[in-house]
Structures are given as C-alpha cells and as structure tokens.
Amino acid sequence: MIKLEALTKIFKTDGDDIVAVDNINLTIHPSEFVVVLGTNGSGKSTLLNLLAGSLSATHGHIIFDDMDITALKEYQRSAFIARLFQNPLAGTASDLSILDNFRLAALRSRAKKVILGNTKAFEEQVRNKVALLHLGLEEKLHRPIGSLSGGQRQALTLLMATMDNMKLLLMDEPTSALDPKSAERVMELANHFIHELGVSAIMVTHSLREAQRFGNRIIQMDNGSVIRDLGETEKKQINLPKLFEWFA
Ligand SMILES: Nc1ncnc2c1ncn2[C@@H]1O[C@H](COP(=O)(O)OP(=O)(O)OP(=O)(O)O)[C@@H](O)[C@H]1O
Ligand SMILES: [Mg+2]
Q: Is the CB of residue 216 less than 8 Å from the CB of residue 235?
C-alpha cells in the first residue's frame, strides 16, 4: 500500500515559486491501477517523479508498505518501483543489446529471482520471457536495443520491470509516442502484468479513450491538487463525453 501524506513540491524559480504538487493525500492499494488525467502543467509528471525519487519532496511523506521512503534515493526505490516513460529511449541503454539491457535491469534491482551474470541460464530465461511478447524479438537478443522501434522498446521495458520485485509501476504517457497498434499492444501488456503480478500502477495519459478503458480508479489533477477521484464502480460508468467535460 502506498500512502502520500501532505505531499508537496515547490519549485523555486527566479520569479515566483511554483507549487507543482500541492498537499496531496492519497492512498493506493495493491492491484489498484490509477489513471491520472489533467491539463498540461497540472503536476502529473512531478507527482510521478516524487514517487520515483527523481525529485525530492518539499514537504510531506511517501509511505510504502508502512515504510517511510521519502528520504530514499531513486536507485534505492528502483528495487520496487518501475517506470515507463513517454520517450521509449528513456528507459533503456540504446547501444547495449537486448540481453545486456536485461542484465543491467537485473543488476539494478538485485532481484533474487533472477539468475545474474553471463550464464546461458540467464539468456534462456530472458529468451523465454521475450518470446511471450510475440514480437519475434527472442531471435534478436544480441541486437542493440536502439535499433528497435519505440513500441518494441516500451514492451521490453515493461518486461524488464516484471523480472524484478516491482511493486509499483509508474507510467507517464507511455503510449503517446507510439502508433495506434503499438500503443494498443503496450497497453494490453501493461494491463496484463499489473493484473498478473497484483502490483499497483499509476498511469498519466492525455488519451481519454485509454483513461476510460484501462485502470480501476481515475483521478484528475488541477493546479497541483487532486480535484476528482473515482473508484471502480464510478469509473465503469464514465464515458468519453463525460471525461471530455472534465476539461471544459
Ligand atoms: N524542474 C522544474 N523547475 C521549475 N518548474 C517546474 C519544473 N518541473 C515542472 N515545473 C512546473 O511544475 C508544474 C507542473 O509540471 P508537470 O510537468 O508536473 O506537469 P504535467 O501535469 O506533467 O504536464 P504535461 O501534461 O504537460 O506533461 C508546471 O507549472 C511546470 O512548469
Ligand atoms: Mg507531464
């Protein structure tokens, strides 16, 4: 369970201070898949960055399974928090092969269930996992990951996250750089992993269609605050015109 307690981020600039995240209190349960909507600049990415630890909070606390992780560094949190970014290039090392990217991911999280090192067994484990994507990439494990399409990379990044002890998946507009078919495939895959692993997930999106289809909770941010928070039952009843009205 993740608890945000009075979480606040203020950016100090030459002019005014910008309150990007303004005193947010939120509890997210395991298996909860939270979709986050909001206009540009409403604080969505800042919220995700605070959770991942790439930004430090100005005030407030982040509690993860009863442990206060507010002071933990990003690399320490990466053992249990995985990220999928808007830019498929952001999550992987372009020059390295698919296999080496999996090695890096395993090293980063020091996951116990993954066999480390240059062993054949590790390669087999990766090959079997990658085959599940049905993209034919299991035959290309030694190709630089930079030579793949954005959709293929997003799928691989998701897969890497599932090989460690990820408990929270953060996704910031994960499909906005993808063509419709690849976007669909990545979303289906994310949805599958979230359910299969029973992890929590938070996804920022500007796609109302995605927001309606995926997740079992939806929140709207405005000016650093959460102004709407709909649970599963309410979310099921929401339609696209209603969501559109949120931005009127
Ligand atoms: N590093 C920074 N320094 C100063 N201000 C920042 C910084 N990062 C974000 N901001 C400001 O904080 C506010 C929230 O930004 P944020 O990127 O979280 O918005 P967002 O909801 O993700 O927007 P978008 O939909 O455009 O991605 C904005 O006013 C932005 O200008
Ligand atoms: Mg953003």
A: yes
Question: Ligand 1: which residue has its CA nearest to atom 29?
Answer: 41
Section 151-156 average pLDDT: 90
Of all protein residues, the one whose alpha carbon is nearest to atom 17 of ligand 1 is 45
pLDDT value at residue 135: 87
How large is the average pLDDT for residues 95-102? 92
Q: Of 186, 174, 234, 203, which Cα lies nearest the Cα of 32?
A: 203
Q: What are the start-end ranges of the E strands in 29-144?
A: 33-38, 59-64, 67-68, 81-84
Structure confidence by residue, pLDDT tens digits, 154-166: 899 888 888 777 8
**CATH code of residue 163:** 3.40.50.300
pLDDT-above-90 percentage for the chain:
67
Q: Which residues line ligand 1 (CB under 6 A)?
A: 11, 13, 18, 20, 38, 40-46
Domain count, the chain: 1
Domain limits at 34?
Answer: 2-245
Amino acid in position 209: R
3-state DSSP: the chain helix, strand, coil percent, rounded to 5? 40, 25, 35
Work out the percent of the chain whose per-residue pLDDT is above 70. Answer: 95
Closest ligand 1 atom to residue 221 Cα is 21
Please give the number of the atom of ligand 1 that sits closest to the Cα of 46. Answer: 18
